[in-house]
Write a structure and sequence with these properties.
By secondary structure, the chain is α/β, with parallel strands linked by helices. Helix content is about 50%, strand content about 20%. It has two domains: about 150 residues, Rossmann fold (3-Layer(aba) Sandwich); about 160 residues, Rossmann fold. The strands form three sheets. A six-stranded parallel beta sheet has the order 2-1-3-4-5-11, with helices on both faces. Helix 10 crosses helix 12. The longest helix is centred in the first third of the chain and has 32 residues. It is elongated. It starts with a helix and ends with a helix. The structure holds beta-D-glucopyranose. Keywords: Membrane, Metal-binding, Signal, Transmembrane, Transmembrane helix.
Length: about 350
């Protein structure tokens, strides 16, 4: 009899604990979803990079839009790491100590992401890396690490396809002197950036696969930068007068630098075709004006939206997978498309 009572008491106690725990979880859930403000830290490898500038503007727009839509206040702290990984590491510490709910990081040196990851893991602050992709091993260290970017091989194949199409329609578009070879120069981004290596390889491979007869005159690293590219192109125009027919550039800013040098030398877009990648506003303007031959546009609105959506849901303790289609649970690849001069004009007149 006594044993039955003890048994009953233990069962009641167990049920009581379970109910208590369930209620605690319920209240906790309500408390979390009732956050009325969140703080998101954003770190940029360089604030003066044109492409990164468009993403920054997109993030600011999204923060305002979500604030209006949901009534949840969004504090965005955006800091420029000015090309220094040490500065960025200290900025990460500062943002964590300010109580950021999530960090969006465009790392300076993608191979040093582990230092940032250590700090974020210690503090329990989730990180959305973007544009400069940490190595897979680093990305797999914690479940609260995400990456948003544009697939580099896809950008390059699209860039190459645009040129193959033009060549097939009229070979003289690229082979201006009609000697049966398209003589090109190549402008490359930072050597440490995954996009430079992959874009270079696949643009040229796509041209070859598409049957465009190629001759490489020369190439150089201009670190995504318009003025560095302009200086290189100025030199090449002097070294190889009348020989360059095509400039293949890893991004729009360097393509624009080459066009600057062509303008200074009085060379028009008819004799040298220039192609870029990004579809930045300045790049699209050059397309409309007819100085840039083609570019590959990444959908910057969706790019910024994906970064923001992931940071937003993590800040509210929600699962990002329910709002953003993630590959392998942590990668979002932004859609891209070729933009030619005709398409840019059509878009403008819409
Ligand atoms: C873009 C470049 C940009 C670089 C910065 C690349 O994906 O195409 O324009 O300068 O990222 O990391």
């Amino acid at each position: 009899m006594k044993r039955n009572w003890i048994y009953l008491l233990a069962v009641c106690l167990g049920i009581g604990i379970l109910i208590g725990y369930w209620q605690y979880r319920e209240n906790e859930g309500q408390r979390q979803s009732k956050k009325n403000s969140i703080r998101i830290g954003v770190l940029l490898y360089r604030g003066d990079d044109t492409f990164i500038g468009t993403l920054r503007a997109g993030l600011e727009d999204k923060a305002k839009e979500y604030e209006q839509k949901t009534g949840i206040k969004v504090k965005l702290d955006i800091l420029d790491s000015k090309g220094s990984q040490n500065t960025q590491n200290s900025q990460v510490e500062r943002l964590i100590s300010l109580g950021c709910d999530a960090l969006c990081i465009n790392s300076v040196d993608r191979s040093s992401a582990s230092i940032i990851i250590d700090k974020a893991m210690d503090a329990g602050t989730p990180v959305v890396f973007f544009n400069r992709e940490p190595v897979e091993e680093d990305m797999n260290r914690w479940e609260k690490l995400y990456y948003v970017g544009a697939d580099a091989k896809e950008s390059a194949v699209l860039q190459g396809d645009a040129l193959v199409d033009a060549y097939r329609k009229d070979s003289r578009t690229l082979d201006a002197n009609g000697n049966g070879l398209v003589s090109y120069v190549l402008l490359e981004g930072e050597t440490s950036h995954q996009d430079s290596l992959i874009r270079t390889e696949w643009s040229i491979q796509t041209l070859k696969d598409g049957g465009v007869p190629l001759e490489k005159i020369t190439g150089g690293i201009a670190n995504w930068d318009r003025s560095q590219a302009s200086a290189l192109m100025e030199q090449w125009l002097k070294e190889y007068p009348g020989q360059i027919e095509l400039v293949v550039s890893n991004n729009d800013d360097m393509a624009l630098g080459a066009i600057d040098a062509m303008n200074r030398a009085g060379i028009g877009a008819n004799s040298i075709k220039v192609v870029g990648i990004d579809g930045t506003p300045v790049g699209i303007k050059a397309l409309e004006e007819g100085t840039l031959f083609a570019t590959v546009e990444s959908d910057k609105e969706r790019y910024a939206q994906a970064i923001f959506d992931i940071a937003w849901s993590l800040s509210l303790d929600q699962d990002p997978k329910s709002v953003v289609p993630l590959v392998n649970g942590k990668y979002y690849w932004c859609p891209q498309r070729v933009l030619t001069q005709e398409e840019a004009k059509l878009l403008k007149n819409k």
